[in-house]
Amino acid sequence: MKILLVEDDKNLAAAIVDYLELDGIICDHIDNGVAALNLLAANHYQVLVLDINLPKLSGYEVCKQLRQQGNKIPVIMLTAKGRLEEKLTGFEMGADDYLVKPFAMDELVARVKALSGRVSSQATRYRVAGLEIDINSHIVKRDGQVLKLSPLSFKLLSCLMKASPAPVERSCLMEQVWGDNIPELNSLKVHIHNLRKEIKDKGADALLHTIPALGYVIREPDEN
C-alpha cells in the first residue's frame, strides 16, 4: 500500500512515516498543499493523510480541488483542534475521516487500512473513447496504439483524464502540473497544443477541448 502524507510539522511527519513503514505501508511525504496536488496528479496513492493548516494551500482547499477534479482518493484529515465546525467543514470539502492531534499511531494505521480496503479497486486506468492512460505504468494508448508522451504532457493528460468529463480550470491545471513554478498562460497553451499532437487528437474524433474563459476538458465526441 502506498499513501501520501501532507504535514508541515517535520517531527510529526517523520514519526508518522517511520511508524507506517514499520507496518509495511509506503508513505510519501510533502509539507504544503500546492506540492501535494502536483504529486497527486502524477502518482497513484491509495489514501491521503492531510493536515488542515498547511502553507500555500489549506487542507480544506486541497480536498475541495481534488473532489472538483473527480479524484475519489480517500482522505483522512488531521487537525490540532476537534471543534465540530472544523469537522463539518472537512466533511463538506469531501474528507472521509478525521483524526485529532495528538493521536495514537495505531489508530492512524487502522484508519488508513480501513479506508484503503474500502477502495482497493480504485481505478488507476482511465479511458475516454479510444484514449487510455495507465497512471501506474505510465502507458498511454490511442485506439490500441501505444503513444510516446513527454513527462509534462503525461501530467497534463493525467489531470484531464481523472477529471473527465468535467473540465479543469486553467489555474488548477497549472498548479497541479507545475506546482510553485507556474508559467505564463501562453506557455500552458503551447503545452496543450503539444499534447494534442502527441495524442493524435484532431478532426471529428477530437477529445481534448478548450472551454473559453475556463480551461480544458477531455470528453467523448458525442458529449460536445
TrEMBL record:
GO terms for biological process: regulation of DNA-templated transcription. Residues 123-220 bind DNA. Residues 123-220 form the OmpR/PhoB-type domain. Residues 2-116 form the Response regulatory domain. GO terms for cellular component: cytosol; protein-DNA complex. It holds the Pfam family Trans_reg_C. It comes from the Bacteria. One of its GO terms (molecular function) is transcription cis-regulatory region binding. Keywords: DNA-binding, Phosphoprotein, Transcription, Transcription regulation, Two-component regulatory system. The modification 4-aspartylphosphate is found at D51. This is Response regulator transcription factor. It comes from Thalassomonas viridans.
